[in-house]
Amino acid sequence: MVRLERVIYIIGALEMLRSTLFNKLRIVSKFVGQAHAWLYDVNLIEPEVREYLKSIGINLRLISRISDIEKEGTKIKGVYLSTGELIEADAFVETTGSTGPMGNCLRYGNGCSMCILRCPTFGPRVSLSARAGVEDFQGERDGDELGAFSGSCKLAKETLSREIVEQLDRTGVVVLKIPPEDINLDKLKSKVCQQYALKEFAENIILLDTGHAKLMTTYYPIEKLRKIKGLEKAKYIDPYSGGIGNSIRYLAVSPRTDDMKVVGLDNLFVGGEKSGLFVGHTEAIATGTLAGYNAVRYTLGMPMLILPRSTAIGDIISYANYMVSTSQGRKNRYTFAGAEYFKRMKENNLYTIDKEEIKDRVKRLNLENIFNEQLV
């Protein structure tokens, strides 16, 4: 969302966000459930981020899988790779997410959908907090089921009609009517992105241009999809089995405090879905940045930073943390992009797209460029 990316800039750090902005396709003024989205190319963003991380001296171990930990009391001493190698450190930030592995997608979903996580290739996700003896919790959905389906799929743009591709290239959005006999309102209850759990998403196929064509639904039978004009040759590319199911998320969320530190451990911090029932890349960037920042402060013996609730980021971190202690709160998802939390933002006067107002608010809190301070 535009407004939160401006907040993140003013608070500082997040050169990473520049990589996202460099690859923005366009600002989409409005589509169903969204007031002002920025769409970026998922095919170009990864190399941009990788090169930035390497340029600042970060040692990337991408084809590596952490399988266990070395612990002493309430402190993690190191993590073991699946090769047996032990990597020691003073502090750790876990952003392993909350999706899968395959057994969970079978138990709580429609089976492995062959999604972008590629569990069969790289092995299942391992929760470091759980390995350290901390009990993770799960998000819930209606019917007392655990987890939620990922809320979108990717179609190969080259398999869509020329008219659809041209409109995606021109406006970023295409809306196509679903035949009345194929409308399924019940499916909205199962998806992660509650800001898009709207009637319009059950009655229409909504495509966004994010490099591929992003299909804004959990899954959709391929034969029904191909009944729609312009999609007669449509092909799923993520997940490959997008006609049958999708990945299941929110199955391993760590209890944490508002400084992003895991409860019961001295030196493990979490961000993204691992830190709460959050939806969206802006939320992942915000929580992950605070987690990394406080991990460094911890190693230096400095007090942790807790962002005040008079900022949208500080408020969503605190509010989401409180809400997961309630039964209904574990069924909600928290995002700046819409649904329950967006209403809260407006009610608490946290929502604005006025850059100067945001800047003044952050300045008054003495937080301007806080993440840009050189700590080491």
TrEMBL record:
Alphabetized InterPro entries for the sequence: FAD/NAD-bd_sf, MnmG_N
In terms of domain of life, where is this protein from?
A: Bacteria
Which cofactors is this protein said to need? FAD
Q: Which UniProt keywords apply?
A: FAD, Flavoprotein
Q: Which residues form the MnmG N-terminal domain?
A: 33-166, 213-301
User: Which protein is depicted?
Assistant: Glucose inhibited division protein A
